[in-house]
Amino acid sequence: MNYWQFGDYLGIGAGAHGKVSQFSKLTLQQQRHHKLRQPKAYLQALDKTAGREPIVDDELSFEFMLNALRLVDGVPSELFSARTGLPLASITAQLAQARERGLLESDTRLLRPTRQGRLFLNDLLGVFL
Known about the structure:
Number of domains: 2
CATH class of the largest domain: Mainly Alpha
CATH architecture of the largest domain: Orthogonal Bundle
Number of helices: 6
CATH topology of the largest domain: Arc Repressor Mutant, subunit A
Radius of gyration: 17 Å
Oligomer: single chain
């Protein structure tokens, strides 16, 4: 559930991926990382990390929704700010559009796809791109 709620997770082993959040000077910075893919290279390397990429603010709302909206029960709205460091107000227009299109439940305390939103999840996620 932690993964689907946009929590941090560590990737351990060849080809593994992870996401780590760090608070720095009152800001939340998030970074994805991935390990070397080939087991032999992974075992022989001193630094087993193949790459690190920051998740920039422009991508955070989509990344959060990409995970959270796959949950049938959705997530509490306050989890958006807690996990992204962004105010929920930063996506007010997208939330309104998704609700107007019948893809997102109207309860503002919860970010949950409607039945139609689950059937057309790519359309719902596209609102946050």
